[in-house]
Protein: Helix-turn-helix domain-containing protein
Organism: Streptomyces thermocarboxydovorans
Amino acid sequence: MTAETSQTLDRGLRVLKLLADTDHGLTVTELSQKLGVNRTVVYRLLATLEQHALVRRDLGGRARVGLGVLRLGRLVHPLVREAAMPALRSLAEDIGATAHLTLVDGAEALAVAVVEPSWTDYHVAYRAGFRHPLDRGAAGKAILAARQQPNGDPGYTLTHGELEAGACGAAAPLLGVTGVEGSVGVVMLAEVVPERVGPRVVEAAREVAEALR
C-alpha cells in the first residue's frame, strides 16, 4: 500500500476477488483469515458491499458475489468494444472477412464487437450480440484453449462449419488482460482458412490486448 491508495477500498476489492474465486461463498471467519483482519472489519466491508448489491449473504451466512457485479460488467462492454475497434477494422480490411471480438458470458461466447470488410462482394453476416456455446466455433474454442494453457500461448484456433454451414473461422485468445476473458477472430465463407489468416488473427488479438491494458 502507498500513501495514495485507500486501505478500505483495497480490502473491499480483495473481498470481491475472493468471492469471485469460489462457487460456494465464504463465511465472515474465512474472509477474516484470508484477509488477515478481524471479523469486525469484514462485517463492515460486507455491509457496505451489500448496500451496492455487489455482495449478498445466503441464509447460512455465507457471502457471495451479488447481482450488482453483473450490471457493472455490462457497462464494461462498450469500453472494451471501443478499445478494440481500430484493430478489428484493420483485421477485417486486411483479410477481407468479418472480424469480431468475443467475450465470455457465463457458459457462452458473446460477440460484443463486429466489423465487416468494406471491399468484398460478400461476407458472413455476423452481428454483435450473437451467442454460442464456448465449445463450438473458433472464438469459444480459442478461449478454452487459453484456459488450458494459463501460462502459455495457445496460438490460434481454426474451425469449419460449426456455427454456419460453409463458413470457417479463426480466432486467438486475449492474453494478459486482467478481468477480461475473450478472443479476436474472423469468420469467412471458404472451404479452408488461408494460411496467413491465423498469424494475422494472433497479431490482432495482441493489439486489442495492448489497448485494454
Q: What stands out?
A: The beta strands are 55-57, 63-65, 98-105, 108-115, 131-133, 157-160, 167-173, 182-189. The chain has six helices and eight strands. Residues 73 and 105 are 10 Å apart (CA to CA).
